[in-house]
Amino acid sequence: MLTTDRITEILNLNPQQIVPLPDVFPEVVGVFNWRGEVLWLVDLSYLLGTEPLFHQMGAGNYNALVVQHPQGMIGLVINQISQSFWCNPAEIQLLSATQRTTKLSQCLQGYWSAPEGETIWVLDSDAVINVLHSRSQLTLKRSTN
Predict the structure, then answer these.
(1) Assigned domain for 10 exists
(2) Among 28, 56, 61, 22, CA closest to 42
(3) How far is CA 74 from CA 117, 136, 138, in A?
């Protein structure tokens, strides 16, 4: 789960709209012309240490969450958006420093226990971007929009 306060737009991208870049870090899918600006697209699954998107999908479209960050905008490419939840931020359980040992846990704000009893991981968009930046030295461009 990702809080909506940083999501600017949700894109449905055809793979032909993505411009691949040679010799970049494997998390980077490519770039996309978003509102006249270059938007870096990052495979969120790969970044978090799970199966890369290109292993999960066929020739279908990608979804990308355009996320605002103090350093700029980035597109987090995901398999699909499955549900929307309303969650009281006070109900999010924070992870302790000792629980932050995996790629995934380094990108988490914490977890939320849904009313149905399901545990849902809550991503921290700032942490996701900081992890990406620390690995790849990717420089984001601030949006003028």
Answers:
(1) yes
(2) 28
(3) 32, 14, 10
Nearest to 41 by CA among 26, 58, 56: 26
The model scores a pTM over 0.85: no
CA torsion sign for 44, 69, 138, 107 is negative
Are residues 31 and 41 in contact, defined by beta-carbon separation less than 8 angstroms?
yes
- If 0-12 CB within 10 Å is exposed, 13-18 middle and 19+ buried, where does residue 121 land? middle
| Percent helix / strand / coil, the chain, rounded to 5 | 25, 35, 40
Q: Encode pLDDT of 85-111 as tens digits.
A: 788 888 888 877 666 666 677 778 888
How many domains in the chain?
1
**Amino acid residing at 53:** L
67 closest CA partner among 59, 57, 75 = 75
Q: Is residue 143 part of a domain?
A: no
Domain holding 94, by residue range, is: 4-136
